[in-house]
């Protein structure tokens, strides 16, 4: 888990990715007529995990990817940068990640324009 759970007014709050990593339904329930979603789960490695920690992280990523697939279908536009080769635990190549996100967004510009 990336963020430490926090207690607030008697409830224990955890990172939303634990339950709903692409909350398109939450946006719709809040009244959004149009939803542009961004999928940021990295691609899976081609090599088997080296240890139990990597196996656990891979299992969690597979669970998130599966959950996101169902929510992504409800988005009007899905932006999904190609994150193969990048880890969600390492943000040091931020300029390259921004470039990938920009490219993925540009690829969806017509769909975004169609929402207007």
How far the N terminus sits from the C terminus, by CA atoms, comes to 37 Å
Basic shape: globular
Report the C-alpha radius of gyration, rounded. 16 Å
Name the strands of the widest sheet in spatial order.
1-2
**Helix-residue proportion:** 40-55%
Strand content: 5-15%
Ranges with pLDDT <50 over ≥5 residues? none
- Along the chain, the helix and strand elements come as EEHEHEHH
- Oligomer designation: single chain
Number of helices: 4
The main pleated sheet reads as: 2 strands, antiparallel
Structural class: alpha+beta
Q: Please tally the β strands and state the result.
A: 4
Average pLDDT for all residues: 85
What is the number of independent domains?
A: 1
Word description of this protein:
This protein is of the alpha+beta class. The protein has one domain. The protein starts with 5 loop residues before the first strand and ends with a helix. It is built from four helices and four strands; from the N terminus they run E-E-H-E-H-E-H-H. The strands form two sheets. A two-stranded antiparallel ribbon has the order 1-2.
Write the layout of secondary structure elements.
Blueprint: E1 6-8, E2 11-13, H1 24-29, E3 36-38, H2 52-72, E4 77-79, H3 94-107, H4 109-114
Parallel strand pairs: 3-4
Antiparallel strand pairs: 1-2
